[in-house]
Amino acid sequence: MNSHNEQMYQHWARMELDQRDWTKAAEAAERGLKKSDGSKELVFLAGYARSRLGQDMMARLQQASAGDEFRRSLQWLERAIAIPGSGSSQDRDMNKQIYRALVINCAWLQETRKMEEIFNVWFQEHPDDPNVQSEWDTLAAKFGLSRYTSL
User: Fold this and answer.
1) What pLDDT is attached to residue 101?
2) Could you give the angle at the alpha carbon of 38 between the alpha carbons of 89 and 9, nearest 5°?
3) Contact between 106 and 78 (Cβ < 8 Å)
4) What is the CATH number of the domain that holds 121?
5) DSSP E strands, the chain
6) Given pLDDT bands bounded at 50, 70 and 90, which one contains residue 1?
7) Which of 78, 91, 84 has its CA nearest to residue 51?
8) Is residue 89 part of a domain?
9) In this structure, is residue 148 part of a structural domain?
10) Into how many domains does the chain fold?
11) Per-residue pLDDT at 2
12) What count of other Cβ atoms lies within 10 Å of the Cβ of residue 66?
């Protein structure tokens, strides 16, 4: 495809995600990013797909390749969260998804310090998000995190 229509790439990436073809989903989003300025959603889709690909590789005991995918995912997701939002409820919902994906990647990579930093921001920006407390409870227990420090 040689289209410059970003929505087409978003739709394509989401179709691949629905089929659980993480590689094709990531490639569709990344191809769209080469053709457009890159909306927050498309950057998120690239990061999310890479994260799911990494999780799939871990399940198949491909740790080295999985680690590479998690690091690529972190780069996309950090880029996505840095894109200023409109303040709309849709944008806030996307930020919640991005934060969740970020902490999950940090957990897979065992980057506890970075995970705590992301949790701090996530708690501050979205204290109403039920996933922030749920993920904190799970990951704090798993990694022995003893406290949440407010900013």
Assistant:
1) 97
2) 90
3) no
4) 1.25.40.10
5) none
6) low
7) 78
8) yes
9) no
10) 1
11) 65
12) 20
Dihedrals φ, ψ of 93, to 5°? Answer: -65, -40
> pLDDT digit string (tens) for 93-142?
999 999 999 999 999 999 999 999 999 999 999 999 999 999 999 999 99
Predicted confidence at residue 151, as pLDDT, reads 43
Q: Are 74 and 105 in contact (CB under 8 A)?
A: yes
- What is residue 146's predicted lDDT score, i.e. its pLDDT? 65
- Which pair of tokens denotes residue 90? 């849709």
Flag whether 114 is in a domain.
yes
Q: Can you read off the two tokens belonging to residue 78? A: 């950090």
For the record, the structure tokens of 62 come out as: 């491909």
- Whether 150 is covered by a domain: the verdict is no
Nearest Cα neighbor of 105 from 135, 148, 146 is 135
Under 8 Å CB-to-CB from 114, ≥6 apart: which residues?
106
Burial 105-115 (b: 16+ CB within 10 A, else e): bbbbbebbebb
